[in-house]
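Each field is set out as follows.
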Amino acid sequence: MSMHTIKLHLGDAEATDALGGALARTRPAHDGEGLQVHLHGDLGAGKSTLARALLRALGVTGAIRSPTYTLVERYPLSEGGEAWHLDLYRIGDAGELEFLGLDGGEAVLWLVEWPERGRGWLPAPDLRVELVVDGEGREVELSAVSAAGQAWLGALGAGTAAYGFAADS
């Protein structure tokens, strides 16, 4: 499968929030497997900000905590199932994930920060998001890695002008 990629410039936190909302609106329907989104980028690149915006746009209310110390935060979704937000920065070995009880049954969406630290344990991503600090803003590259990711980016790409983004796809 050829990899579909969209590159965007996010000028500020509001643009990051808008991207999270656009990802929520264009997310493919749940087909029994949880969608995997792997968030890559240095510390402070905006991974948690994007995850929080996506969760908020999916209807999560109340506090959306960073899983930096808890490693995983679970959020019930109004449509059913849960979104799981993982931050693997603090794990030393992917084998540590076995003890978190992440069988994935309830998860319809996985948002994984620092996924390279879970290599060999985590399923392959559907969508890979690379965030890079660029002055006051961020450069983001979204890459589809599966058929579900391809459908997601196709829907997102079709609406980038409506969402206020300039995309290079």
About this structure: The chain has three helices and seven strands. The first strand starts at residue 5 and ends at 10. Strands lie at 5-10, 35-40, 72-76, 82-87, 107-113, 127-134, 137-144.
